[in-house]
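Students often ask why inverse folding is considered easier than folding. One informal answer: many sequences map to the same fold, so there is more than one right answer. In these notes we will look at a single instance of the problem. The structure comes first.
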């Protein structure tokens, strides 16, 4: 084998290794659309009222007498980015009920971040107060989890399921009852029939 052939085969081998590594690094990644932009509010703050188009959404709050979720209509700024609309919906949920229903969140809970993937999973990150101050009990935990999941999936076509994080990390549960180790689909059986 000539020296020229050895150099050619060596370069070909290096190129092949580079392409194989590149292929495995880029495969099967979810594309994420963050809610944040340069003009977005700081973590935990409600988005500013926009002068542009608005749309009605339904956010779900636990009802005191039976722990079922009750929908309340709110208006948010219409936005082409699902993550920004998700942030606005969750800001309305964090404001609390306007109709005397319970808050699904413990006091001082803040929304840290929202991402929506192309495959329809919303990653919602809350501050640690959602765990540290959460009341014990299955019904309280169900109300918190599905107020979030149902509010997002009912209003956003781009969101099919929701993964809840706390301070940027996965948790097994909020207070020991509902598994959070996977994304959750909506459960409309928890919504009260009017």
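Output (designed amino acids):
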């Amino acid at each position: 084998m000539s020296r020229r052939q050895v150099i050619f085969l060596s370069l070909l081998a290096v190129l092949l290794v580079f392409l194989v590594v590149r292929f495995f690094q880029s495969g099967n990644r979810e594309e994420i659309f963050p809610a944040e932009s340069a003009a977005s509010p700081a973590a935990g703050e409600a988005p500013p009222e926009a002068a542009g188009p608005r749309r009605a959404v339904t956010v779900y709050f636990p009802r005191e007498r039976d722990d079922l979720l009750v929908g309340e209509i709110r208006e948010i700024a219409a936005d082409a980015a699902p993550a920004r609309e998700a942030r606005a919906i969750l800001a309305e949920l964090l404001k609390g009920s306007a109709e005397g229903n319970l808050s699904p969140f413990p006091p001082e809970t803040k929304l840290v971040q929202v991402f929506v993937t192309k495959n329809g999973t919303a990653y919602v990150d809350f501050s640690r107060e959602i765990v540290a101050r959460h009341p014990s009990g299955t019904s309280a935990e169900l109300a918190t989890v599905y107020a979030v999941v149902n509010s997002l999936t009912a209003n956003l076509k781009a969101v099919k399921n929701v993964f809840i994080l706390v301070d940027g990390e996965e948790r097994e549960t909020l207070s020991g009852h509902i598994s959070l180790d996977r994304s959750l689909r909506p459960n409309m059986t928890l919504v009260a029939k009017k």
